[in-house]
Amino acid sequence: EKGGYDTFMEKEIHEQPHAVADTLLGRTKDDGELVLDELRISEERLRDIDRITVVACGTAAYAGTVAKYAIEHWTRIPVEVSLAHEFRYCDPIVDERTLVVSISQSGETMDTLMAVKHATELGALTLSICNTHGSTIPRESDAVLYTHAGPEIAVASTKAFLAQITACYVLGLYLAQLRGETYADDAKSVMTELRDMPDKVEELLGRMDRVVEMARFMADSRAILFLGRNVGFPVALEGALKLKELAYIHAEGFAAGELKHGPIALIEPGQPVFVVVPGPDTPHELHKKVVSNIQEIRARGARTIVIAHDGDEDVVPFASEVIRIPQCSPMLAPLLAVVPLQVFALHLASAKGLDVDQPRNLAKSVTVE
Ligand code: F6R
């Protein structure tokens, strides 16, 4: 049942190219135009949306944060991401023109369900991005966009995360398409590129030997930090979460720009820091800025483990290790950059002799508030 792998988590990490491909399947025409009749919401109603609020917990909320950057960029609709348990009790500003998008692998997370019910009471349009057919959250929502990752057994979420991000891209690009010409051309070209992502994830999975080796010799680490910027920020948060959950190591993710506002005080000789580097063509010189962050922490003795695109040579002088990911446009990079972080957490936890599929104190779906 584990398909030749030692753990469900490892199997599910390797199923990620399919999770992305299957989530795209049947939702586009050859020229990249999106078809989402399955939502059963009128185009007029969707065009009327003037605000999006994503509600989710844990890994699903990080997928939502990737969605915020992407959907705002593609559609210019303001997107807010709210942890579902906070949303429910913070007197949220939501009305009939708000689309509340919930993201949940299980479809049974009580915090997320309560947020959706509250959004409905407030008159919002609710859309569920969910991996489990017929589960409660999609049933309580006006519309559903299923992710097709297949059943996720390991407690720590991996393939569902990639599928959630993919579904969010599909939703964002569809809204861009509905909003007309200025947005639609861009949407089509991103969609075309999105269809190449499963092959790139597959290629990346074939390059993980060094990451596995690093995980083994870092098994005694006491704390590991993760930095990222823009869509790389939620990737850093997810890398830290995987390590906490699986390896019980103190791990924290930061927005790289925040470093000088405090966290840089944590840097001492030998401190491992993963840095998710934006692609060299990311707007606003973010690539250069993150490279200079790497230089700063390296100068203070950090062990810098840098996740960078193929061909990005600027990082090399300041990196203790470089993990290479295939080139892609900046917005799509989370689908690649998170993979080495998942593999790292998995193998570090195994090296410590821990139960990777069932970490202590955690349940696959949290059905209490
Ligand atoms: C992380 C993890 C949790 C879930 C969260 C939401 O590996 O598994 O953080 O992502 O509990 O669960 P769902 O997506 O089922 O609502």
What can be said about this structure in brief?
The protein is an alpha/beta fold. The protein has 14 helices and 10 strands.
Describe the structure.
With 369 residues, this protein is an alpha/beta fold. Helix content is 43%, strand content 15%. It contains 14 helices and 10 strands. The chain has a 5-stranded parallel sheet, sandwiched between helices. Helix 6 (110-121) links the parallel strand 3 and strand 4 (125-130). The longest helix has 20 residues, at 159-178.
List its traits.
369 residues, alpha/beta, 5-stranded parallel sheet, 14 helices, 10 strands, 43% helix, globular, binds fructose -6-phosphate
Secondary-structure topology with pairs:
Blueprint: H1 8-14, H2 16-24, H3 43-47, E1 51-56, H4 58-75, E2 79-83, H5 84-87, E3 98-104, H6 110-121, E4 125-130, H7 136-139, E5 143-146, H8 159-178, H9 181-194, H10 197-205, H11 209-217, E6 223-228, H12 232-247, E7 250-255, E8 272-276, H13 286-299, E9 303-309, E10 321-325, H14 334-351
Parallel strand pairs: 1-2, 1-3, 3-4, 4-5, 6-7, 6-8, 8-9, 9-10
Helix pairs in contact: 2-8, 2-10, 4-8, 4-12, 8-9, 10-14, 11-14, 12-14
The chain binds fructose -6-phosphate.
Number of strands: 10
Distance between the termini: 32 Å
Number of helices: 14
Low-confidence stretches: none
Q: Return the average pLDDT rounded to an integer.
A: 95
Helix content: 40-55%
